[in-house]
Design brief:
Length: 526
């Protein structure tokens, strides 16, 4: 069975069957990786992208000569075949080695991230630090009754006061529901093995003693640096698109797949709408990174009502970036800063100049304020002008820049950025998988939205690579490429040097009633 490690790296030497005619839906990391891998076998593809730009959420947006990332993408992976492919496509000269740095901003002070309790307690001051330690002790003696939810889990790990300071608000901004209704799995992945007292003891232990203790042990640490394309992640996918087109594939922009026609146990053709005109393309295989829900709804003939209901049960969280151009004096060394202050809606702020000097212009930088939203809510429907003004107010309120010094602003909306894990999603995905496997197994869902899995681009690429292997004659179960128990940027013992281990990341399970209640509250507020 395929897992996201070295054992799952594409290895097949099989030749494609005659009449291979592949349609690729979506020109993000998964779709373009599939097209690229097929092109190396002499197989051309028809690629349909509904947008006017490649890269999906891994795109780099360019406005007036400024380039900015959507969400931030560190090019780090534990899968050597994916890492090799990055350099094969783009070339080593186009990558920068960048330092990894992220912090939290809370009540005007910056805190290390991942959270370091000694640093946090020092910034909070002696009185609040004492209260936090007492709260931690109370939680150890009287742990929460329910630690299966994110709130209970974090309180049991750090005490209620540190939880309220550093864990509650950001997670609620991202997912739009209370942390008491989020699964604990998401938090456990990020603070695995960490506790307040062990962190304090570790900070007080001399370095030489720690080195002796760790010799031969499995020591976990976050990566300190990562690769990054000079002109942003979109540079990778812009180059990949150029290569596949040079090799004979056709890339169709603003082309929406409206129907996938199937008969006799296989997909036979795909109908695409471009500029109001519809065209049908025959296919032997379909590699799809379009949202899984939309894929199933496009099937012709339509699946039974219960299958369509499962598709409609899948939901998404949307995302927007408001990029502000400011003088260099407002730069900071972090890739991004997490915003825990409850008085602002922004959840995270990127400094694109810290990602790459090629993204910004001399004497200035570009700060990307990230808002986690739902398509159609009051934030999503605001005008760009109003969003830019709100971003200027919030960045000044946070003390990160003077609103009057903002030179320009740009807004990018990204629908369906995050597949939502409600308590029914696994059951719904299983229904869709089973129906496609029985009625059209030559349809191959890949990538984040294509498989409804909250993952990184290396995970998405690997699912595409293995799908191509299957077209060439292999028999990988692509669905077993899954998230790992450790955070994807951790390196553990020999795994760090060997480059093995899983990939991707987990996300909290959101209760369906909580999602609907939050949506009702947003509608009432608007």
């Amino acid at each position: 069975m395929a897992t996201a490690d070295e054992t799952a790296a594409p290895t097949s030497n099989a030749s494609p069957q005659s009449g291979t005619n592949v349609v690729v839906i979506g020109a993000g990391p998964a779709g373009l990786t599939a097209a690229y891998q097929l092109s190396k076998q002499g197989i051309t593809t028809q690629i349909f992208e509904s947008d006017s730009i490649v890269g999906g959420i891994s795109r780099t947006v360019e406005r007036d000569g400024w380039r900015f990332d959507i969400g931030g993408h560190r090019f780090f992976t534990k899968v050597k075949s994916v890492d090799d492919l990055w350099f094969e496509i783009l070339g080593a000269d186009e990558f920068l080695q960048r330092p990894r740095m992220s912090r939290l901003l809370y009540r005007g002070k910056l805190y290390d991230y991942p959270l370091k309790p000694v640093n946090a307690l020092r910034n909070l001051g002696p009185i609040e630090a004492t209260r936090c330690v007492a709260s931690y002790g109370w939680a150890k003696v009287h742990p929460p009754k329910d630690t299966s939810n994110l709130e209970g889990f974090y309180i049991s790990m750090f005490g209620r006061r540190l939880y309220e300071h550093f864990f509650r608000r950001y997670n609620e901004k991202v997912w739009g529901v209370p942390t008491s209704q989020l699964s604990a799995d998401f938090g456990a992945q990020r603070v695995k093995g960490m506790s307040l007292m062990t962190a304090v003891a570790d900070a007080m232990t001399p370095k030489k003693i720690k080195q002796r203790r760790s010799k031969g042990a499995q020591v976990t640490s976050l990566i300190e640096s990562f690769n990054y394309p000079k002109y942003g992640p979109g540079q990778m996918w812009e180059r990949c698109a150029e290569l596949v087109v040079e090799r004979g594939s056709e890339l169709h922009y603003r082309s929406k797949v409206v129907a996938i026609h199937h008969a006799d146990g296989a997909a036979r053709s795909v109908t695409v709408e471009t500029d109001g005109e519809r065209t049908t393309f025959d296919c032997s295989h379909v590699i799809s990174s379009m949202p899984f829900r939309t894929l199933v709804e496009s099937l012709d003939p339509a699946p039974p009502a219960e299958v369509l209901a499962a598709a409609q049960g899948l939901s998404y969280r949307d995302f927007m970036t408001v990029a502000l151009v400011v003088p260099q004096q407002y730069s900071f060394p972090d890739n991004w800063i997490y915003i825990h202050d409850p008085g602002v809606k922004v959840g995270r702020i990127q400094n694109f100049g810290s990602w790459s000097p090629y993204l910004v212009k001399e004497g200035r930088t570009c700060l990307g304020l990230e808002f986690f939203v739902n398509e159609g809510d009051d934030m999503w429907t605001k005008s760009d002008e109003d969003l830019i003004e709100q971003a200027k107010r919030e960045i000044q309120q946070l003390g990160l820049a003077d609103a009057s010094r903002v030179e320009a602003g740009y807004v990018v909306r990204m629908p369906k950025a995050y597949p939502v894990y409600d308590e029914y999603y696994q059951q719904n995905v299983a229904v869709l998988r089973e129906w496609i496997a029985q009625h059209a197994p030559n349809i191959m869902p890949t990538g984040r939205n294509g498989m409804h899995k909250y993952n990184n681009q290396d995970h998405s690429m690997l699912t595409a690579m293995l799908s191509v292997e299957n077209i060439l004659g292999a028999h990988h179960d692509v669905w077993t490429v899954n998230v790992e128990s450790e955070y994807h940027e951790e390196q553990v013992g020999s795994e760090a040097s060997a480059g093995t281990g899983g990939t991707g990341r987990d996300a909290p399970i959101l209760p369906r009633d909580a999602i609907e209640a939050a949506a009702d509250a947003r509608r009432a507020g608007s």
